[in-house]
Specification:
mainly alpha; three-stranded antiparallel beta sheet; globular
Length: 577
């Protein structure tokens, strides 16, 4: 193992090399989709129920001509355009959203992947087949007109087809795709996965990072950095070392983006530590939620508004948009301070990224870089242990940079270091199990709640989200503790029954679920109606069905062994004969 000085020197050289490969990405400069008076007028007039609808609409002509026409309308109306005239203008200058893509059925989709045979419950197996079929409904391919006329679309052109989440989310999304890819590989679709990975790698080469989603208005922010972990899933399935060799420097470039632009140096108890946070240093309302951001900011004094808008973007970058997790001082969205917290899950993700990069270099025979990333991970683990771990409570917690204290509220992300494999010794696992018991998490029979706080935001109680189930369940399941493994199974059973019951009732999968009632229902809260689809929910469900297919049951209550079923049948037969 190298010393700290050698690791630091190599890190400087690596950073300099990566900086030469790509500068910081410029923010979106579109005067229609990202900023400007046209955007402000349309969104504040609320022409559409969902602000996202407008910024997803393609243009009918060049943006310069549209801006010229708008300025003429603005002049002729004395700066006060009526709702009807504005609506007419948009109808004449924009197309309906979604026309720049076409539905795509993946070429590598096949009817009966092998994992289905592992599912004993026939009702669950039939449901899993339905989930497998959903990939055909969620596949999209971008038309060449987006490549030919990029300035007339907010959609970012990518060469390979992809899977979308569903509902209002009709483009690719970054961290959603991690769990989508898990499901696709269980469905034996590595070709589709490779294409999606190549799209993300191309984004890093072009912009220096993977945007939040596939629209130009998302370029200012990223999402939880899971690209390297997606590559690891793909390699585990295919052992495609040539693909890794071609792209490992691009994976490093993404990590460098996070280390250069999203890291913070923390002096604590005489030691200096470097960890990461979410931070979007560009203000203004989010274009896809313009009116909501603007109306919220107007509640503050003018000199405080820009700060709030940057914090809302940081919250969107976290993927948890929005949550009491980011509130400091109250339980209200106005007190969002996302960039002032060091999140457990972000640093757990990066801890695993550093280990995976080390393993990648070991596979490629580069001992120098293998040791570099092992050293980087060791430093991160030391920082996480010092700042995020709480021995008394037996869990990790987000760290407030301002008051230099941990946020001791319950969130599933608190257990993400176990999921990442960065802290998996049996003593830590035992304490994590006790932490879940102390917070009575197993009493929630429909799924693991996103928090125990009621804020009206979608990343709080009573909502439960598929990726957060995975962050807890997989960490426990992969541990060496029999107690933790059994707890993981019971949580997986609860989640599967919730998903299955609602699918049987509504024939739909949802992005989130309300677990405040016994039967469960679609989730709510936040900025928009609950969406159907749904990419990552499908992926997590398939993962649990694959892992526990021989034990899971579609009915509540303990599943009787087959011999017990036979005995019960014989007894009933005797009663009626």
């Amino acid at each position: 193992m190298w010393g700290i000085s050698e690791i630091f020197q190599l890190g400087l050289l690596l950073t300099l090399e990566l900086e030469l490969q790509g500068a910081l990405p410029p923010p979106c400069d579109s005067q229609i989709y990202c900023t400007g008076e046209l955007l402000r007028q349309v969104q504040m007039a609320k022409l559409y129920q969902d602000d996202k609808y407008f910024v997803d609409m393609p243009l009918t002509k060049a943006p310069d001509q549209i801006l010229s026409d708008f300025n003429e309308l603005l002049r002729s109306s004395g700066g006060n355009i009526s709702w009807d005239h504005l609506k007419t203008f948009v109808n004449e200058h924009f197309k309906d959203r979604g026309q720049e893509m076409e539905t795509w059925i993946p070429e590598d989709w096949k009817p009966s992947p092998k994992f289905l045979q592992k599912i004993s419950d026939t009702r669950l197996r039939a449901w899993a087949e339905d989930l497998h079929n959903l990939w055909k409904k969620l596949g999209r391919k971008i038309k060449l007109e987006v490549l030919d006329q990029p300035d007339q679309h907010s959609l970012i052109y990518v060469a390979h087809p992809f899977i979308v989440p569903g509902g209002r989310f009709i483009e690719f999304y970054y961290w959603d795709s991690y769990w989508v890819i898990q499901g696709l590989l269980l469905s034996e679709m590595p070709g589709t996965v490779k294409g999606m990975l190549q799209n993300f790698l191309d984004m890093v080469k072009q912009y220096g990072h993977v945007p939040n989603g596939g629209r130009v208005y998302y370029l200012q922010r990223s999402q939880p950095p899971l690209l390297t972990l997606m590559m690891d899933q793909y390699l585990t399935y295919t052992n495609d070392l040539d693909f890794l060799r071609e792209n490992i420097e691009t994976l490093e470039l993404e990590l460098d983006f996070w280390m250069r632009n999203r890291s913070v140096n923390i002096s604590y108890e005489g030691e200096n530590y470097i960890l990461n946070r979410y931070h979007v240093p560009s203000g203004g309302p989010r274009p896809e939620s313009y009116s909501k951001d603007e109306e919220l900011a107007m509640l503050l004094p003018e000199d405080a508004r820009e700060s709030l808008l940057t914090e809302l973007k940081a919250g969107a970058e976290s993927g948890w948009d929005f949550s009491s997790r980011w509130f400091i001082g109250s339980n209200y969205l106005l007190d969002s301070k996302t960039s002032q917290l060091v999140p457990v899950d972000l640093n757990a993700f990066l801890c695993q990224v550093e280990e995976v990069l080390a393993n990648f270099y070991a596979k490629l025979g580069n001992e120098t870089m293998n040791q570099y990333y092992l050293g980087a991970q060791a430093q991160r683990k030391a920082a996480m242990k010092a700042l995020l771990w709480n021995e008394t409570l037996g869990s990790w917690f987000d760290f407030h940079l301002h008051n230099r204290q941990q946020n001791h509220a319950f969130y599933p992300s608190n257990l993400s270091p176990l999921w990442a494999g960065c802290f998996s010794d049996l003593d830590t696992v035992r304490k994590n199990v006790k932490y879940l018991e102390d917070n009575k998490i197993l009493t929630y029979k429909q799924g693991i709640p996103t928090s125990l706080q009621i804020s009206g935001q979608q990343w709080d109680f009573p909502n439960a989200w598929a990726p957060l189930q995975d962050l807890v369940i997989r960490g426990l399941a992969d541990s060496g503790s029999a107690q933790a493994q059994e707890m993981a199974f019971q949580m997986a059973q609860n989640w599967i029954q919730t998903n299955f019951a609602l699918y049987q009732k509504n024939k739909a999968m949802y992005e989130k679920y309300d677990i405040s009632i016994d039967s469960g229902k679609p989730g709510g809260g936040g900025e928009y109606e609950v969406q159907e689809g749904f990419g990552w929910t499908n992926g997590v469900a398939l993962q649990f069905l694959d892992r526990y297919g021989d034990r899971l049951t579609s009915r509540s209550g303990p599943m009787l062994p087959s011999a017990s079923w036979l005995l019960l049948a014989l007894l009933l037969l005797g009663l009626f004969c």
